[in-house]
Amino acid sequence: MAEEPKPKLIGERRDVCELDRARLALMNPAIIEQKKEERTFDEAAKPFIEMTMKEGIETVWDRFEMQQPSCKYCASGLSCSRCAMGPCRIIPPERIRGVCGADADLIVARNLLDTIATGAAAHSDHGREIVLTLYGIGQGTVTDYVIADPEKLRRLAAEYGVATTGKDDKKIAGELGRAMLDEYGTVKNSLQIAQRAPGATREIWEKAGISPRGIDRDVVDAMHRIQMGVAADYANTLTHGLRVSLSDGWGGSSVATEISDVLFGTPKPNESLVNLGVVKKSHVNISLHGHNPMLSEMVVKAAKDPEIQALVKKVGAAGINLVGLCCTGNELLMRKGIPNAGNHFNQELVITTGALEAMVVDYQCIFPSLPRTASCFHTHVISTSPKSKIPGSFYFEFEPENAYATAKAIVKMAVENFPNRIPERVFIPVEPVKVMTGFSVEAIKGALGGTFKPLVDQIAAGNIRGAVGIVGCNNPKVKHDYGHVTLSRELIKRNILCVETGCAAIASGKAGLLQPSAASLAGPGLKTVCESLGIPPVLHMGSCVDCSRILHLAAELGNALNVGIHRLPLAGAAPEWYSQKAVSIGSYFVASGVYTVLGVMPKIAGSPPVVSLLTEGLKGVVNASFAVEPDPLKAADLITDHIERKRTELGI
């Protein structure tokens, strides 16, 4: 029998709660009440935020306040630390160039390209891990996973030119996995899934010189350009940023989404619960946080293991309650109906329930401070990726080849921690909210009778004026969830369908917008459509890599009408974005022809030419552009005006 995987302690575990008593001494009840209201729009989060302030437990909002005032040069993109001759800052009128001679426009453009490349690499490396698992199934080295959607496997194989006649799923998995891995390199010089884009859209890419070539190739090309002494023209630098982002949206993110469906099941509409109230006092609670569904899939399976269930009874718990966080949580929510505790800014607060036995993390959007928060409670923070070893966490080396054994050891560790819970510290004063999720492109098409014509007809008739993809994160520069929820409510009121992913989708879920009953908040046309189909006016389409689903949906509509994506009454929005991944997402939306409104200003204000190129100049390149509008009501006006212009241009 193989030896049970054992955790390693990363760094030093803090077993003594480090309370911020100095800040606590400055807060009176009136200040606490004011800050609680200023920090979040999420009603379920407010009691927990109040508790952290009263007890002096540091959170993301406290750390944001400690960083104020921010450096105006850094915020404008005018600082550069690319080489050892710097760091440099552009401070007119004396300092108008860095030591190497780079001016403000080039410094801002290089910084933005760096950001796009980082986000594209994060999404695409996630996709690589999923595809390597598929390939491992074909090679026989990975045995803990199965093909959950063999029909989609064969459909993708045909798309990639992989013959399927006379072959079993395992053989097809290996050949498809190899074909997809080839797209990470430089030999093929094109991406297969990008062929789904309408011909007119692909012609625009070709003319602009931004057709995606290879996932790793375009990221490496970007990193080469930002090496000091290479890129010298800001416009040329930013043009490559569009190519990198397309390699993400139509490459790395797309394969992550498509193969996750093959391995774990293509989402279908289901009902579940969201917010911090999903934590159960009587159960062993395990939160699954991050972005890769490979680990969480095995944890779900391990939680049902008879040996684990016997241990649960032994420690006196009523059962195991798995809850999701962020995008790993979105993956579980849409495929398995597992409740979601919240989005990015709920991650510290779920620990403060005092009832969380383990927070299991993989990578991306994970606060390094989590073990510090957990030190005030009994919670174990368990990290699992060699890319994201967190000091103060217990680390399990997770690989597809030992997936189930590792997951079982993690669940066992969580169950054994249940007796260490401090009863008087348990605090769950809120009730969860119902949601309907799981709207993959296939599910939407199926609900429409196997064709997108009914949706096109509703748009043409004006019952649905258009659609908006609302995506992105949480950012302390914006009241938590306010941007997402306010924009969504305003758009559906105007008969504009919202399709959402990631933290934006969970924000809408916590606010009750992912329920069919939310159709009552929509305009009369959208309300009628939603009620006839029994769906919400805001559709949950998955995690942040699943923004590619929004691209594929746009491509389906464009192909149905035989027009480029830029001709459609569509828009994108990221009201609370913070991460490099969000910049890549926004860039591939725009590069694909989708007008996109940001709620937080990127670090580009130091270069008026860069701002002009992104908000105006790109219209002549890809027929789309960015806009920045912090006020979600004004952002709704911008989006509505754009959609109505597109309707007029189409003659509808």
What is the element layout, followed by pairings?
Blueprint: E1 8-9, H1 21-25, H2 29-39, H3 46-55, H4 60-66, H5 72-75, E2 79-80, E3 88-89, H6 104-139, H7 150-159, H8 169-182, H9 199-208, H10 215-225, H11 234-264, E4 270-274, E5 284-290, H12 293-302, H13 306-315, E6 320-325, H14 326-336, E7 340-342, H15 347-351, E8 356-361, H16 370-374, E9 380-383, E10 394-395, H17 403-417, E11 433-437, H18 441-447, H19 453-461, E12 466-470, H20 482-493, E13 496-500, H21 502-510, H22 524-533, E14 538-540, H23 547-561, E15 570-574, H24 580-591, E16 595-598, H25 608-617, H26 619-622, E17 626-628, H27 632-650
Parallel strand pairs: 5-6, 5-8, 6-7, 8-9, 9-10, 12-13, 12-15, 13-14, 15-16, 16-17
Antiparallel strand pairs: 1-10, 2-3, 4-11
